[in-house]
Amino acid sequence: KELAARKAAQDSVNKANAIARAQFVQDSIASARVEQARIAKELADKKALEAEQNRIAALAREKAKQDSIAVVKAEQARVAKELAARKAAEDSVKKAATMVRAKFVQDSMATERAELAARLAASEKAKQEAVAVSKAEQERVAREFEARRAAIDSVNRAAAIARAKVINDSIARSRETAAQRLERELAQKRVLELREAAQQQATLDSLAAIATANRMAKELAQQQLREAQGKQNIATTQPAPPAEGFARDNNPAFETSQPDFGRMPAILFDKNSGVIAESSKAALKVLAQTLMKNPAMSVNIYAFASADESDARQVSLQRSDAVLRYLIINGVELDQVKSFYHGTTISRNGCANPNCPEGLLQQNRAVAYQLVQ
After folding, report:
1. Model's pTM, two decimal places?
2. How far is CA 337 from CA 34, 261, 297, 320, in A?
3. Secondary element (H or E) of residue 300
4. Please, how many CA atoms are within 13 Å of residue 273, restricted to the half-sphere of its CB?
5. Does residue 340 sit in helix, strand or coil?
6. CA 3, CA 147: separation in Å to the nearest integer?
7. Between 342 and which of 260, 273, 296, 346 could a Cys-Cys bridge form, CB atoms 3.0 to 4.6 Å apart?
8. What is the pLDDT of residues 24-70, one digit of tens each?
C-alpha cells in the first residue's frame, strides 16, 4: 500500500511537472514571438532612419560639391592672378639681375686687366731685381770661393808643415817609448839592487851579484847604444836569436834544435790586441807562483802574431811586454824571465798566410812559455 501510495504520489508530481513544463514552453514561445515582433519593428525603424540619413547626406554632399567647385574656381582664378604677378616680378628681377651681372662682368674684367697689368709689371721688376741679386750673389760666391780656396791652400800648407813636424817629433820620440823607459828603469833598479847587495855582502855571493850587476849594466849600455842608432826594443826584450842559439845558456837541451812552439803551453790574445784576457790570467798566476817557489828556475816567453794582423811585429812585442809585466808585478824576479817576440817570422803551426783558417790564425795570436831548470 505504501508503495502504491508512493507511486501514485510520484505520478501526480510527474504530471504536475509535465504540465508546468508545457506551460513554460508555451509562455517562452509567446515571449519569443513578441520579442521577434519588437526586433522586426526596430529593424524597420532603423532602416527608415538610415534611408533618411543617407538622403540628407546625399543632399549635403551635393551642396558641398557645388560649394567646393565654386571655391576651387575662385582659388584657381586667384592662383592664376598670383602666378601672373609672380611671373611679371620674376621677369623684372631677371632683367635687373642680367643688367647687374653684365655690369659686374664688365667691372671685373676691367679690374682683372688692371691687376694683370700690375702683376706683369711687378713680375718684370722682380725678375730684373732677381737677375741683379743673382749676379751680385754669383760675384759674392766667386769672391768667397777664391778666399776659401786661398784659406784652404794656406791651411793645407800649414797642415803639411804641422804633419811634417809631428812626424819628425814622433820619429824623435819613438826612440824612447814607454816600454823602453820601463826597460831602463827595471834594469837600473835591478843594477842598484845588485850593487846594494854587493856592498852589503862580503862573501862570494856578493862577488857574483856584482858580476851580474856589471853584466846588466853592460847590457843596458849596449841597449842605450842601440837606441841611439834608431833600433827599437822593449824592456828585457830582444829580437829572437837564431834557432841554433835559442836559450843556449839556460836550456842546453835545445842548443842545436828549433823549439816546438806548437806544443808549448800558451795564452791566446784577441786580434790586433796586446791585452791579456781575464781567462788567461789564472795560468800566468800559476806560472808566477811556480817561479817564486823555485828561484833557480826561469822561464822563456815567446810572442807571436798572425799573418792577418796589422803591424804584426809591434803586436807581438806588446804581447811579450804584457806577459813580462804581469809576471814581474806578481813577484817574479826580472832575471828569471827572458822574452822574445817574433811577429810573423815564426809560426806555431806553419800558417804564414792571412788566408789560413781562423783556428790556425788564432793559434798564432799567442804567447808561448817554457820553464827552464
Report:
1. 0.35
2. 156, 17, 9, 11
3. strand 298-303
4. 9
5. strand
6. 165
7. 346
8. 999 989 989 999 999 999 999 999 999 998 999 899 899 888 888 88
